[in-house]
Model the fold of this input.
Amino acid sequence: MKTKVIFICIHNSARSQMAEMFLNELAGDRFEAKSAGLEAGKLNPFVVKAMGEIGIDMSANKTKTVQDILETGESFDYVITVCDKEAAERCLYSRAEGRNSTGDLKTLHHFRGQTKRNSLLPRRYVIR
Done:
């Protein structure tokens, strides 16, 4: 039986979506990951592009709310929040993701570099 994990953020637009995709990609044989936001959001197109550049297609992903997940009756072994300091007070659990980015090339570089994608990939070998 797979361990079920849900990643929670404010809008389910970037970090939580990326975390879901990475966990399913890197350890899908042992984990089943999902993600949701506290509020309805829109998938960040820069995240879709950055993830596509490393071979993870999330173009068909849709954002989901925590309420959507609760209505299914599904339960999880782990609830993980992904966060930034500015949004921390909004999250019911701990901290949460900021608003959707709708910038330009600078925003894309953010999701290519500093972010999640490059900081998570080296951990692929330590997921147990």
